[in-house]
Amino acid sequence: MNAILNTAISPFVLILRRSGVLTEDIDYHLVRVSMVIMFCFFGYQKWWPYEAERLVPFISNGPLIWWLYPVFGHQGASWFLGVSEWTFGALLLAGFWDKRLGIIGAAGSTATFIATVTIIPFMPDGWDPAAGFPAMTGNVPFLMKDVVLLAVSFYLLKQDVVRVASPNMNRPYGARRPRVSFIPDRNE
């Protein structure tokens, strides 16, 4: 079985290695672009009345976002979230070129998902009464994705901080790392 797997996988790994995909930061860039797309779509939804209605149980039960309704009103709270999501998405996008802006976007993204994850224990009817915890019902399964998005946001925050702290890492998207040669120079 190992021989079959090695025969099937080896050409694929060789192609990936030759393409440079394995030596560049493709995973980091894919995570960043997926967050930008997600914030773009989720932010767009917040401008429509159907989404403002859909947000009521989340905002009403959110220990960190309950104040949105008293401050902004029903539709205003939705617009505030939409502007916030577009802002964080734009900052994450700008992080391709300037990691300092990426840090701000990732910090905002992290705060966003801390706020939404903290809703989970306070969501009414979130756990099936017959099966109990961890059998999720209602809005809790929708919020569980935010646990992963929180981890992704923290990953981007850490990566951008490391890149800002290391001058060699803070390069624009698409710029190549200097090649390091382990072959001594003949003139030495």
List the secondary-structure elements in sequence, H or E.
HHHHHHH
SS summary, helix count: 7
Task: Please give the largest β-sheet.
Answer: none
* Mean pLDDT across every amino acid position: 85
Rounded to the nearest angstrom, the radius of gyration is 22 Å
3D structure, described in words:
With 188 residues, the chain is an all-alpha fold. The protein is built from 7 helices and no strands. The termini are far apart.
Task: Identify the notable features of this structure and list them briefly.
188 residues, mainly alpha, 7 helices, globular, disordered C terminus
Topology:
Blueprint: H1 2-19, H2 26-45, H3 49-54, H4 56-61, H5 68-94, H6 99-117, H7 140-165
Entry summary:
This protein has 188 residues and is mostly helical. The chain contains 7 helices and no strands. Helix 5 (68-94) packs antiparallel against helix 6 and helix 6 packs antiparallel against helix 7.
